[in-house]
Amino acid sequence: MAQATVVVIGGGAAGMMAALGAREKGASVILLEPNEKLGRKLYITGKGRCNLTNDCSPQEVLQHVPHNSRFLNSAVNRFPPSAVKEYFESLGVPLKTERGGRVFPRSDKSADVIDALFFTLKRRQVKLLHRRAIRLVTENGSLSGVETDDGEIIPCTAAVLATGGISYPLTGSTGDGFRLAETLDHTIMPLRGSLVPLEEEGELCSRLQGLSLRNVVFTVKDQKRKVIFQEQGELLFTHFGLSGPLVLSASAHMRDFQGNQYRGLIDLKPALDPEQLDARLLREFAGQSNKAIHNVLEGVLPRSMISLVLELCDIAGETQANAVTKKARRRLVELLKGFPIAIRGPRPAAEAIVTAGGVKTGEIEPGTMMSKKVPGLFFAGEIIDVDAYTGGFNLQIAWCTGKTAGESAAAYCRKE
Predict the structure, then answer these.
(1) Which of 4, 47, 10 is nearest to 379 (CA)?
(2) I need a labelling partner for 263 at 20 to 30 A (CA). Which of 93, 273, 364, 378 fits?
(3) pTM score
(4) CA dist., res. 103 & res. 1, Å (int)
(5) What is the pLDDT of residues 51-73, one digit of tens each?
(6) Residues 6 or more apart from 143 whose CB is under 8 A from it?
């Protein structure tokens, strides 16, 4: 019969870190992961490059957590980005820092991060079982074991739930952990996707499907016309709406699709203010005065956008450049500085990078990640109701909550 002082449920980023944290503090550890490979979601993070943290202070990490950031204060300071970088370097993963403080393995390969964790687990004699946890067993209100899908109950003093969220279910994030937590009377805050593509109300995006724009500014306004997001970068038009790095980042700021209506605006020429852009168009029109406006705009816009832009400005494509009125040119400038997208809502949570919502933070002790309802039960990673913006911050949360939970579980076992 398998047994351990600590059972970690889930072999993703938070689970592997929790298992190592508990083992390094002297606990015997079993790691349960039904997938044949650990860290499957890590393989796809950062476009397969694994943006494993952000090179910033603990306070800056918290500033990138829009919801329940105070809950993470202790964990982030316990294992800040500087310590995360040092830890992975010590495991033989050279790192580099790129734009925006994003930290990647120097090899640009997620597999190097996963392999380093896997072989460290093996070297430190963490027992890996490819099974699924189906029940948390308690005795006198405290955690006492974990039942697996083969019918075995693994006795333990502590368990760490690190099963992830509901995004990318093919990687194993199927929501099992939320169901397990609920059986022990934990509150699950509403689950939804964060860092997720957006669906359009209309068909402008579908007409531009496949077009990628770089160095544009994407602004999102709420129904009160308040700017809630504005950044420069890259986005992609799809058959359903918008995707790409800018859009994923914007989605994390759009936290109330039920009670709010959001509108996106794409500044196609952020380097020019409206007056400069108007002067640029005047030069283009003067230099090609007898050409059709459709052809003239090839020097200003991606070819696949021209027909749609002219249609929205009510300008016939065959109109000669010297026949475009001042009023029509102003409409064109206005559209190039604010191409409008009516946003219907986010894509399904299964397509999101991370899950917002989860186990209520008020039911978890922030200094240890232990349940306030069930002694011996700890939480780590995406299962907790915290999520962050893009840039390595979500993995930073996984590492620091995982380490806190694992070390605290080992300390709890020593007291029992």
Answers:
(1) 10
(2) 273
(3) 0.86
(4) 42
(5) 999 999 999 999 999 889 999 99
(6) 136, 137, 156, 157, 158, 159, 374, 375, 376, 377
